[in-house]
Amino acid sequence: MDTTPWHGGEVALQTRVGSAARMAEIGPRVIRDHLIAQHAGFYPLLPFVVLGTVDPEGAPWATLRAGPPGSFLGVPDPYHLTVAAAPEPDDPAEAGLQDGAGIGLLGIELETCRRNRLNGTVERRGMSGFTVAVEQSFGNCPRYIRPRPAMFSGTLRRAQAPAVSDRLDGRARALLAATDTLFVASSTEAAGQSGCVEGQAVSGCQGVRSRTMALSVTKSFRITATRATFLGRPRSVSRS
User: Fold this and answer.
1) Residue 69 neighbours by CB distance under 10 Å
2) Strand order in the sheet with 194-206
3) What span, in angstroms and rounded, lies between the C-alpha atoms of 116 and 109?
4) DSSP string for 9-61
5) Facing residues of 227 across strands?
6) What is the C-alpha to C-alpha distance for residues 203 and 236, in angstroms, rounded to an integer?
7) Biggest alpha carbon–alpha carbon distance for the chain
8) What is the mean pLDDT of residues 198-217?
């Protein structure tokens, strides 16, 4: 029985850079089907989490949800993570947060550069939030993360409806050109259209045009799971 945690795109990329054999040995040891004690204690400390979802048309979306630490994220047992976040109908990613949908999640503590990831399945039983049934849980290297303070202010603001487009307007291009961190979501058919989300430090988005941009990213991005899948369906979202 094949026990590899890697999908076909990841294996192809690992093979290209000569690390397939090593990753085949490492993968089952570091990617688990449950939250270890260290991760279970980590998530409830966070004021926000990054989600990767896939909408009914198959397009991946990266988004954020936030709440007060201690009650926002919970770990009732090693196989489930609860997220106390009401639906946000104007968020394109919300369409991928239905019961039974695949999801990718990134928990990141920006002050300490700690981060952990998990992939799983959404279990939604009401409007107050949802649960993620854990399928893959693993830590991520803190290198390249830009430290900064992050806290939940407790002030709720009504977000403007996002403008969905296949190109970037002037305001979006200016925002991207000045940014130093991006969260990218991707999906793969082999994983049942589950979401995958990854944060990458960048030194700027150079040559930002209406439909393309060049990223100055870390070398490690060239062999990540996200790169193995994120080129499939380009979409653009501008949200303020």
Assistant:
1) 15
2) 181-188, 194-206, 214-217
3) 9
4) HHHHHHHHTT-HHHHHHHHHHHSBSS--HHHHHHGGG-SEEEEEEE-TTS-EE
5) none
6) 20
7) 51
8) 51
Three-state secondary structure call for residue 139: strand
Domains of the chain and CATH, by start: 1-30 (no CATH), 31-238 (2.30.110.10)
SS3 122: strand
Given the structure tokens 């926002």, which residue do they identify?
Answer: 72
The closest of 144, 123, 140, 20 to 80, measured between CA atoms, is: 123
The residues near 34 (Cβ < 8 Å, ≥ 6 apart) are 78, 79, 134, 137
DSSP 8-state secondary structure symbol assigned to residue 153: -
Could you tell me the two tokens for 84?
């106390």
Structure tokens of 73? Answer: 């994220």
Q: How confident is the model at residue 68 (pLDDT cuts 50, 70, 90)?
A: very high
Query: Is pLDDT above 90 for 85?
Result: yes
Predicted local confidence at residue 213, as pLDDT: 55
